[in-house]
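Agenda item 2: adenosine-5-diphosphoribose complex prediction
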Amino acid sequence: MTGYHQAMKIAKDANIVILTGAGISKESGLSTFRDADGIWATVRIEDVATPEAFARDPDRVHDFYNERRAGLLDSKIQPNAAHEALARLEAAWGGSVMLVTQNIDNLHERAGSKNLVHMHGEMLKGWCQACGLVCEWVEAMDINSVCPHCGVTGHMRVHVVWFGEMPFEMNRIYAALAGCGLFISIGTSGNVYPASGFVSEVRHNSSCRAVELNLEPSEGAQLFDDARHGPATEIVPGFVAELLS
Ligand code: APR
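Presented output:
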């Protein structure tokens, strides 16, 4: 059918929303959360990733993110073929492509993605709880860190969304989901709301197709029209090539 993607019947100018999770960065050398070797197998969420944990033991929370930030800044950590394929899709596709990531790494932007929403924040940014400044932050952060804008000491935190907090840019994301013709979920286990609910949102639009690209079926796998299972560096470039063919 001319003008349509053959297998999925996606109009070549359909708007696309892509959701990514930790699985897309796994082959770049970053850990996922809920796999057997994932981050939550070694540390408890309630000790490092809640506002209550930060209030109770800020040193511990700062150390957790300092270690992850330093890991991300290691020169061995580079965008992989899946990140690169999504940047290629955005540049070449006829409609809009919005990439919504739960990841707090910077591998999508380093691969060249532009229309990118970090719904869970970014670990290379600091956030001053005194004046609201959000700024680049690559050094270790601690309870004596000083805000470069207001000069207040002890109110800097990493610019990430913790459990119990509202993810960023939800209105923009829901508007994009309401107007998309293709939703692609990549490398996420589907355990964390609201991202895990995006596939249900697009089900309200009968013309929207939903595809899962993941190592294994996710929690919400039955809600998708189609799925490809395997390592992101193989299945994402393959699927992007199909869309662009
Ligand atoms: N290629 C594709 N998928 C992979 C790969 C890979 N190489 N390796 C693992 N996966 C899949 C796993 O099978 C799993 O389904 O990626 C998914 C990762 O799931 P999680 O570890 O739960 O990560 P994610 O879904 O991103 O977590 C969501 O939870 O703790 C929070 O805030 C954190 O943003 C994170 C959120």
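Discussion summary: The mean pLDDT is 96.
Owner for follow-up: CH.
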